Amino acid sequence: MKGKETRTHLDREQVLDAAAGLVKQHGPQALTMRKLAAELGTAVTSIYWHVGNRESLLDALVERTVADLGEIRATGSTPAQRVVSVARALRRQLRDHPHLVAMVHERGLTERMFLPAQLALVHEVHAAGLRGARAADAVRAVQVHVVGHVLVERNRERAPAQRPAEDELWTARNAEQDPALARALARPVDADAVFTTSVKALVSGLLGPGT
């Protein structure tokens, strides 16, 4: 009786929410109609009724992901600050939805996914006085910086433990030349701080120090 009640109140958004949760937790390969039905406590036929087959489900997930990732709003009092805020927001989105982003990429919708961020960046580089090719170069430089940084972060996270580790290297080497630097490099990497420092430097160079 409980299963029947669940099927009666099930809707398309609930199915997509559950599917997105499975993908986010285990990757696209873990998303099967049988697992999704078990997650929702319903029958496989009910899943088909709401979203069609697995390919249709994946298409719907991709469309929703593209729409969700489009919600980027710049913050800050200057164009440079607002460009940095867009870059940080884009990085968070890519970091928070790696499997869903991969699905978008596999279906050839990567450029469409990045369009809202590009539009926000265009608005800000125009506000900073850039036009034409210079504006386009600035937008693309920020976008590539974000994507490249995320890829490096993921590679570091997936890499095997390093021997010797950074703290071991920097307590033993070059400590006499610059002890403060050695202590700083021996500490774990703060990816947020590194990204913010690097994107601020990039934006300052692109828009000019006065911005």
Please give the oligomerization state of what you see. Answer: single chain
Our count of helices gives: 12
Low-confidence stretches: 1-7
The fraction of residues assigned to DSSP E strands is under 5%
Note the overall shape: flat
Rg, Cα atoms, Å: 22 Å
Estimated structural class: mainly alpha
At the first level of CATH, the class of the largest domain is Mainly Alpha
The sequence of SSEs as H and E is: HHHHHHHHHHHH
Tell me the major beta sheet: none
Number of domains: 2
How far apart the termini lie comes to: 64 Å
CATH architecture of the largest domain: Orthogonal Bundle
CATH topology of the largest domain: Tetracycline Repressor, domain 2
Helix content: over 70%
**CATH superfamily membership of the largest domain:** Tetracycline Repressor, domain 2
* Average residue pLDDT: 87
DSSP E strands, number: 0
Helices and strands in order, then pairings?
Layout: H1 2-9, H2 12-26, H3 33-40, H4 44-51, H5 54-69, H6 79-96, H7 98-106, H8 110-127, H9 132-158, H10 166-172, H11 179-186, H12 191-207
Helix pairs in contact: 3-4, 5-7, 5-8, 6-8, 6-9, 6-12, 8-9, 9-12, 10-11
Question: Would you mind describing this structure in some detail?
Answer:
- The structure is a single chain.
- With 211 residues, the chain is mainly alpha-helical.
- The chain has two domains: 2-65, Homeodomain-like (Arc Repressor Mutant, subunit A); 70-207, Tetracycline Repressor, domain 2, CATH 1.10.357.
- The chain contains twelve helices and no strands.
- It has helices at residues 2-9, 12-26, 33-40, 44-51, 54-69, 79-96, 98-106, 110-127, 132-158, 166-172, 179-186, 191-207.
- α6 runs antiparallel to α8 (110-127), α6 packs antiparallel against α12 and α8 crosses α9.
- The N and C termini lie far apart (64 Å).
- 25% of the residues are buried.
